[in-house]
Specification:
The chain is an alpha+beta fold and 250 residues long. It is built from six helices and eight strands. The chain has two domains: 139 residues, 3-Layer(aba) Sandwich (Rossmann fold); 62 residues. The chain has a six-stranded antiparallel β-sheet, covered by helices on one side. The protein has a two-stranded antiparallel ribbon with strand order 3-4.
Length: 250
């Protein structure tokens, strides 16, 4: 089981240069209040104080993409425009993990990096792509499942409102299969079905070869042996034994 313990943000969207840490392992419900400087009429309360930013930071820290439809460059604080950092800490199977993502500049890729630590040991692979793959493997949930089951946002359709099946978008069947690892079983089942079809085709071809061999053997027998009842009986018994042994080898 995964237990998220800590989320730290710096220069991420509306959070500025001073690091802000959210403790995620506290039991119960957490009320988030603050001051919305963009809403001078009613600036103190629960609206516009960073709840969605926290969800975006958690998703970005884990999956390298936020919940909201925002480019990664636009995640960098608009005022400071540099040195964005998001760190996510969690526990799984007795191990502690820490993911740190850094974007040095709003408009340039130079200096952007991700680090992954397991029990304070750096296990970061050789590229961001491979690091993201390793993180998803450790988490055990793809992004689409995470944003519909772990965190919730108006950006994504709730699970119960999704179609049961769909060829072009998210649907309940795919999510359930991912959640219970049924997709892997389905893929293996499809692979085995294809392999079985190939084996059946090969078996039919082998049986056709046996029939042709028997036909040619019968012709050769008539050329070399006298057509008597005893010879026909011997040849029939031998042919039956030959066919059975050949089919058992297929």
């Amino acid at each position: 089981m995964i237990k998220f313990t800590r989320l730290t943000m710096k220069n991420f969207l509306s959070f500025g240069a001073s690091p802000t840490t959210i403790l995620l392992d506290r039991p119960g419900t957490t009320l988030i209040v603050g001051e919305d400087l963009d809403n001078v009429a009613n600036g103190i309360g629960a609206n516009g104080v960073g709840k969605t930013v926290i969800i975006n930071a958690l998703a970005y820290g884990v999956y390298d993409k936020p919940v909201s439809n925002i480019s990664k460059d636009n995640l960098v604080n608009n005022i400071n425009k540099s040195h964005m950092e998001v760190t996510v800490e969690f526990e799984k199977d007795g191990n502690t993990y820490r993911i740190k993502r850094v974007r040095k500049s709003k408009n340039y890729a130079a200096g952007n990096f991700v680090q992954l630590f397991e029990n304070d040991i750096d296990i970061t692979p050789d590229s961001v792509v491979n690091t993201n793959k390793l993180i998803e493997k450790i988490i055990g949930l793809p992004y689409e499942l995470f944003v519909r089951i772990v965190v919730f946002s108006a950006t994504h359709t709730p699970f119960l409102d999704l179609p049961i099946r769909s060829q072009s978008g998210a649907n309940q069947t795919d999510i359930i299969e991912e959640l219970f690892d049924l997709k892997t079983l389905s893929e293996k089942s499809e692979l085995l079905t294809e392999q079985r079809k190939e084996v059946e085709v090969e078996l039919r071809q082998q049986k056709e070869r046996i029939k042709r061999m028997c036909y040619h053997l019968a012709l050769e027998w008539r050329r070399h042996f006298e057509d008597t009842p005893n010879n026909r009986c011997w040849f029939a018994n031998w042919m039956e034994k030959f066919i059975n042994e050949t089919e058992n080898q297929c």
